[in-house]
Amino acid sequence: MRRTAIIALKKNTFPFGHKYFGRSAPSKQVTFPQILRTLSALKTGYFSRKYFGRSAPSKQVTFPRKYFGRSAPSKQVIFRIVLRALSARTDGNLFLKLYRRPALITLALCLLASLISYPLSASNQALARRPDKNQPEPIEKQTQALAARFIENVSALAQGANSQERGSAIERLLDSISVPHRREPFASGEIKGINIIAEIGGQKSGVRRRLLLGAHYDRVSVGQGAVDNASGVSAVLELARAFKGAPLKNFSLSTAFFDQEEAGLVGSRKFIEQHRENGLPDLYINFDVFGYGDKLYVMSLQGNSPSATAMRKIAARFRFPIEITSEYPPSDHRSFIAAGVPALSISIIEAAEIPLIKEIFLRQKQPQTQPRIMEIIHTAEDTPDKIDSLAAARALLVVERVIREIDRSARYRP
Asked: 263 and 225 in one domain?
């Protein structure tokens, strides 16, 4: 196959059979400039039958798998995949420019020869692959490793009988990934607690933009507080690990683990008071109830904000279901919104439970069927065995990509 490609380069032709282009094809081999001419006349990556003669096999012209390697997703590969691989998307004008510049034609031919000689890259396979609802995505080693760490983090916190013991578990986990941290004690009347703050930083020193990831680590007196909210703490810890290994470019990252959320968001409100003079973050992302489910449930006051748009974009890329709404139960994000800081709050939950959750928390109604989450949180049933670590790991990979997309965007506004 590689030899064929090299010969094709020298002859400026590619061995696509006569039958794929109809009887109107001038010979058994269609020259690459002819393909360019055709592309320049089109606005999309699909090729209408009229451009290739009546004998074209369908309204979309396809090429057999043998031209694209064994990793092609089906026996025939739509030519739009070639456009994606060349980063040309569906713009025929690019090909017109290539046709008018011989040097660029040579470059394009080299790129196409590489496609013929080697399998499609993993990312292009993902773009080309058609989703199959009956076939779940294969679980990669990265996801399995993340899932294993996630449940270990949850179990470590769940063993703590109170906030002091749970806080010590967080500090040990931060030490294990070499992330510096500090305690910030607070008091509000008779309520006392300790917030734990960790600094991850970024690639560049002196970056002005600040991003804060947070979760509350306290629990109620019953149960082990696994879903509410050791799961959220574990999510923040794993994101801290990821961003320490590959720091953000345009943000300085910090993490906060809040105490006394269950007493009325006290820890996050005290954090706002203590840090107002030194400057609050440009964006806060909260994690609460991140233990199981098939859908990302995201709070955003503005569904079209850049951060919400990034959530929607990356979730679609991963084909992960998502609901972005302002209707969301109370959590620490409210303290930041009240202080004027743009905020998201992220959970994963079963999709069928979300309407029921809204009825209970926002409309003060009791549905006929209680959502599963209400049978777990604030009860003796809130234990580590309720955690679906694989679901949490899949969702967390999406969230990490969302944060990197926010960081990448030059036009970012929270």
From this structure: yes
